Amino acid sequence: MIGTVAEDLGGGLDIACAFRAEGLRTLFLFDVPAKSVELSDAVVIAAADAVEAVDWLRRNGCSQIYVEFGSASVLGAVAEAMSVDTVPIVPSAPHRRRAVYMGHLFDGSTLVADLPRVLRASLAAWGPPSQDH
């Protein structure tokens, strides 16, 4: 089972919808539940405390953990809680039009670094970039 921790509702819903679109039975939780719940193929928790959410997911049978994050401190805290030294970072999600090519982020064919600062912030609010294949 895949467990996902999202920093906010928007990121959590994006991930839950992507899992569902791939046919996974997906449970979306607005916070870490006080007790166990009936689990599905994937569980997404939009939680303020990422470490608490990861702990709950692991105790409830999630063998794979995905963290949707916007801050390196969240990733570091989760890595420490899971006792891992290496964490793969994927700056993409297949359902987006964004891609990383030669170390540069593109939105479609537009280099994001060339966009005005306000527009770059707006793109960031829509979620992580994707890898076009």
TrEMBL record:
Q: Which residues form the Four-carbon acid sugar kinase N-terminal domain?
A: 2-113
**Listed Gene3D superfamilies:** Putative sugar-binding, N-terminal domain (3.40.50.10840)
Pfam families in alphabetical order:
SBD_N
Please give the coiled-coil regions recorded for this protein.
Answer: none
- In its UniProt entry, what is this protein called? Four-carbon acid sugar kinase N-terminal domain-containing protein
- The scientific name of the source species is Kibdelosporangium philippinense
